[in-house]
Amino acid sequence: MPALAVSGVVRTPLRALARAGQTPIPALRHPYLAALAPRALAAGCSIADAVRMNPQPSSAPVAAYLLDESPPKTLDWARVRNLADESGALWIHLDQSDPTSRDWVREESGVEPLVASGLLDENSRPRVTRIGDGLLATVRGINLNPDADPRELISLRIWATRRRVITLRLLRFASVRSVMERVESGTGPRESGALFTAILTALTDRAEPAVNSLDDRLDELEVQTIDRSLPDPERADLLDVRQRVITLLRYLGPQAQAMRGIGKIAPDWMSEQDRLLIGESANRLTRMVEDLEAASTRAVVVQDEIANRLAERLGNRTYALTVIAAIVLPLSLLSGVFGMNVGGMPWLETSAGFWIVCGGMAVIGVVGAWIARTRNWL
After folding, report:
1. CATH number at 63-308
2. Against a cut of 0.85, is the pTM above it?
3. CA distances, 260 to each of 56, 133, 145, 196, 352 (Å)
């Protein structure tokens, strides 16, 4: 694609601009950038990140394979359009931002309007629905693209039938890429059910390290909180952990629930092994959700402990200042009395008067400190 001049607006995550009350989309002169802006906003990344991870559409599928071939080879649009359902299991992976791909889904794919609407819907809440003899799924995966925000999850839409699997994405998926590599090497799935299962399993595999890394970071923060010899945890680090936990819980929770329900609605073209593998992935995802819920509670405890330690330090300093003020108060009163310029003040005529007053103040200070010490005020 031609080089695009990316402004400061394009480099800034659009959600940050939206929170600031700015409207970045009209400022985009290039038509492809303007078309990509709403999708970048939904994905939570900047326009520059979306362009880097999604090259300008080339009117071709990202990948298309006839799974029955050995090894499967990438197909172009012409061959995809000429293949009938009887040709074997076909996988078509599309870029949702490509107008040609969107038009193909609506007009040439042969899917029902309800399915086409689900595949192109901007609302990406995780779900799995059976429509006729097919499964329509919207799932989320960890954003492992270079320079991506790991707190964001990116969406993948799947329509799977006995002879065809259609997948659409906005941003590149490392999980889908791994399945593609297996297919191209000849070791990947050869049937629609196995492909559907492989994609869901790959998404779960990529999510597990992200959840484990959050647990490890939270363990470090807890150790810093408990061990008084270590510096206090940075509140920015804790805030980042909590934001990532909230984001993962928002999507992985419904996704685990949707995957658990596949066994009840799975069509007969899905083998028993496929159902067992998806059930195992759902169990792993459920365990991750439980770990995230525990991490959310642990993060609140860490935050409360940090707040308690700060309050304790502030209270100790305020208490020490109060005791010192109580000791100094009689001295201040005495110096104020002897500072009055009125007649009748003692020791005005003797040179030892100053030292007498200083000695009395020293005695009062020592007595006050001794009283505070014996009563454990200090």
Report:
1. 3.30.460.20
2. no
3. 37, 19, 28, 14, 93
Domain range annotation of the chain: 8-53, 63-308, 316-374
What's the token pair of residue 117?
């609407």
Topology match between the domains 63-308 and 316-374: no
Query: Residue 214 CA to chain centroid, in angstroms?
Result: 10
The highest-level CATH class for domain 316-374 is: mainly alpha
Tokens (6 digits) for 56 = 């300008």
Per-residue pLDDT of the chain (378 residues; tens, 9 = 90+): 333 333 343 444 444 444 444 444 444 444 455 556 666 666 666 655 665 555 544 456 788 888 887 777 778 878 887 776 556 788 999 988 888 888 889 988 889 999 999 999 877 789 999 999 999 999 988 887 766 666 678 889 999 999 899 999 888 888 899 999 998 888 889 899 999 999 999 999 988 888 888 888 888 888 888 777 667 677 778 888 888 888 888 888 899 999 999 988 999 999 999 999 999 999 999 999 999 999 888 888 888 888 888 888 888 888 888 888 887 888 888 778 777 777 777 777 777 877 888 888 888 888 888 887 887 776
